[in-house]
Design brief:
Bound molecules: zinc ion
Number of domains: 3
Largest sheet: 2 strands, parallel
Strand order of the largest sheet: 1-4
Order of helices and strands: EEEEHHHHHHHHHHHHHHH
Structural class: mainly alpha
Number of helices: 15
Radius of gyration: 20 Å
Shape: globular
């Protein structure tokens, strides 16, 4: 483990497995190739990553990402040029369609070449994020969001430090028991930011988020609907239609679908015999039991069949697509949730 050097575009990563840790490859590593992991948070802007590496490890990072000051979109394009993934991934492709992300990355990179935040704006927003982490005060996040507003309106979401800011924002809503806001932001991060921030399909952080989402769906399904949109909640700016769309979601089935995603991805990111995958298996058994008691139990059964057989299980696949369609409407509420932030 001590032999792994740092890169902001690593080919391996550390994964916790119960009380032990393991080094897992993110991409194919040849016999003589050097192993790199990331010592720092890739959601930070380059100068902050370099500063942290200088202060803690006494070197200036000269990795490709730092040298070229690559955007996450450029990294996505570079990595997908060199290592086209040939892995069969029927289930996950419904959620993360790789070709789609590559074409999005090139469009967004094009847009980025015409619009850039100044170094001062980036630094200002990052400082507010750091201050939030120290003080737990949401006001600093609002100030950071305000600085990044031009970036948000250009939809260049994956450029640091916005991903880190949204990460703090979802953690804040979670700490306030505002589960719908949490859900909107976390889904947005998982679907639109993670594929660029962590370009490998089985990056443990991407995979862990699937499991977090599954857990969030389960928790929301256990809440009485009235508590989802408390009238006292200052932050909920979602209108009647949006609230209606959320109430109509089948959170139990969404829980099952995301557990299936997490299971498939987790066997690769954490390993088949890992504590993580064992936990997912137990959660899957739980939700399958719950599904048996709902109506004729058909939905749970068809999803189970889809998990075992893939797209051959047509009914199950259709159900998954319907659930993901509903969730993509939820993701579309990100603007309302971000703008709902009071400044
Ligand atoms: Zn670097």
């Amino acid at each position: 483990m001590a032999l792994a050097n740092h890169s902001c575009s690593p080919n391996a990563t550390i994964v916790f497995n119960g009380r032990t840790i393991a080094l897992r490859a993110l991409s194919e590593i040849k016999a003589e190739e050097q192993i790199f992991i990331s010592y720092v948070d890739p959601m930070q802007p380059r100068d902050f990553r370099r500063q942290e590496l200088r202060e803690r490890y006494f070197f200036t990072c000269q990795c490709t990402v730092c040298q070229l000051n690559e955007t996450p979109y450029q990294t996505t394009l570079r990595l997908n040029n060199t290592s086209a993934s040939s892995t069969k991934r029927e289930h996950l492709s419904l959620l993360w369609w790789n070709e789609d992300y590559i074409s999005k990355a090139s469009q967004l990179q094009e847009r980025h070449s015409k619009f850039k935040l100044s170094a001062k704006q980036i630094e200002g927003a990052q400082l507010f994020i750091n201050r939030t982490r120290k003080t737990q005060k949401i006001e600093f996040l609002h100030a950071g969001l305000q600085i990044l507003r031009p970036q948000i309106s250009h939809r260049l979401y994956a450029i640091p430090p916005l991903p880190a800011l949204l990460n703090e924002l979802y953690l804040y809503h979670l700490s306030q028991d505002q589960y719908i806001e949490t859900l909107v932001i976390l889904l947005f991060i998982s679907l639109h930011l993670d594929p660029h921030t962590y370009p490998q399909l089985h990056h443990p952080i991407r995979v862990t988020r699937l499991y977090t989402l599954a857990t969030l769906f389960k928790h929301i399904s256990s809440l009485p609907t009235v508590s989802l949109f408390p009238s006292s909640s200052r932050s909920s700016k979602l209108n009647e239609d949006q609230q209606h769309a959320i109430r109509n979601l089948d959170f139990i089935s969404a829980n099952q679908v995301f557990l299936i995603f997490a299971f498939e991805a987790g066997t690769k990111s954490h390993g088949e015999d890992s504590v993580f995958v064992k936990e997912i298996k137990e959660a899957l058994a739980d939700v399958e039991d719950v599904q048996k008691m709902r109506g004729d139990g058909m939905v749970g059964r068809e999803l189970r069949r889809w998990m075992a057989q893939g797209d051959v299980a047509v009914e199950g696949k259709l159900l998954v697509e319907t659930i993901l369609g509903g969730l993509s409407d939820v993701v579309g509420m990100i603007g309302t949730v971000i703008d709902g932030v009071e400044i």
